[in-house]
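Researcher: Predict the fold of Ubiquitin-related modifier 1.
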Amino acid sequence: MAQSETGDEAQIPLTVEFSYVHSAVTRSFPVGISAGIDPSFGRLLVHVLTMSISGGLEMLFSDQRQLSLAIPALDKDGKPSTMTFLIDHLSQKVMEDSRKELFILDQHLRPGILVLINDADWELEGEEAYQLQSGDNILFVSTLHGG
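Model: Structure tokens for Ubiquitin-related modifier 1 follow.
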């Protein structure tokens, strides 16, 4: 974090706009986030991720199957952003559907949702503890279907 003249950490507000394309229509939404600054390089620490959503979960995200997200590289405690942070961010800031229980249960990803991180099962990557990196491709697929 950057230091102010008094030695305190300076919070720098950052607004990131992400866009997605659906049916040849591009929609942009400003998303307010805070990002740290790497004092040695003076650069913002933001990860840009590509997300795919399928198996019925896309209905929770305005029927969007592909999203590009810019998220802070550090969470509110200054620790690297993890899948836990991403799941919370998705449910609180991105998901427009009120049925959050179809995506999260007890503040964790709902059982029955398959997650791939860069084409590998997230269980091999540390699940919710996986530290996000710029360029990551995250896939959420619901394996639960009515019958």
